[in-house]
Predict the structure.
Amino acid sequence: MRRLREELDELDPSILASLGDPDPVLEELAYAIRPRIHERRVPSYGAIVRPAVKSTRWSEGTRINVAHRRVEDLADSAVRRFADGVTSFVVRGSSGVNDLVVFDRTVGSERDLTIVAEASGATVVQRHPSGVVRAAGPFGVLRLLGFDWQLEPPVSRWLDVGVCAVKPLSHEVLKRMLRFAVHDVAARNIGATFVITPNGKLSGGVERRYGRPPDFQIDRPSDLAPLYHVLGQVDGAAVFDHTGMLTELGVRLIPSVAAEAEVEPFGGTRHISALRYSYDDPEATLIVISEDGPVSVMRAGKRLGHSS
């Protein structure tokens, strides 16, 4: 526990400071790193730690139904055996496990954890069935990669969403796009470019190589898995309208001569073409995801912010 505290404090002092009482979170992280092994099987695990919002209101922000299961006759160690970190989670208070909740769909992705953490006002700790240990809370998202921790800070630390969301694009749609970009696409090391325009149409120079894609919507959780699946198999930009509806896929962005002259190159080919295209189409907001993780937001030939 002392070593875990030192590691996180060395990574970023704001992590523990944002938790108030960090001990319950540290205890759940320690358990997620080394859960109880049974017959050589390492189980997955999930805990919702010190929620500030009543569970009856969680569905408002998650669009997920929450059911409670009776656990008052069980010790904490017994209740933990039911929490798979994908559909079932223990609810942990300051002194121990208080409850067991079951969701009506899987919430195992990194994006799902951030949504549950935000809706519940809690820190969500997970050991995924793949073995990845992570936590989502007011500090952002923590990932344990081998023996090292990685912090993905909240978008609000590196981007002014209000400046980037130009009508008719709403703050909420842009936040969902960024959450998908950071916690679904970038977390899987998929490189991609999103172009968000008022009507889903492009006004700059482009080369189209595919027909109209299915009507995937960024606010439909069931649409996101096939969306990031296809993004990992095609080059070019994905185009969305201001409601978050996919309108085009695999589009090659071709900057004008003026854009090439006015906009200095930055990063690799994906970043350069996106930045220069944004100069030609100033009403568009572009989100660029690097294969190695960082996410950048651009508009009108300028980079407005980028993640760590």
Observations:
- The mean pLDDT is 92.
- The chain is about 30% helix and 25% strand.
